[in-house]
Amino acid sequence: MCKQLDEISATEQALRSSVALLQHCPDISVPDAYHAVIRTIEHLFWLEQELMEAYDFPSRQSHLEQHARVLRGLHCAHSAVLRGSVAHARHAGGKLLLDWLTLHRDTMHAVFTIWMSYCDNGLLNKQTQPHEASFIAH
Length: 138
Description:
By secondary structure, the protein is mainly alpha-helical.
């Protein structure tokens, strides 16, 4: 799974580069830069979904719902961007997206990282359904 994590990390870096380009490109290039941000975040979300499915992550649905909400917001803003709203593009595809990504990493990704660690270290019985798993504290 390390290869998948490396690919996710590289895609996150590509996303940050796309956002930086969006923030600093000439106004005439904003629609193309915004579209590049959307393509990159869609790819990142796809990679994450593949990894969550590989680990049979029990909170996958709520994680994917967050992804869907972000994509919906970006796609809704895209029409304004195509009509020439440079400020809309830079705000939605830049500041809001990066702020959300930071929060998402600190919450949803943290939980998924713990799940992967438990799986990789044999702390979960693969035969047990996720909803049946229990942890006993002493």
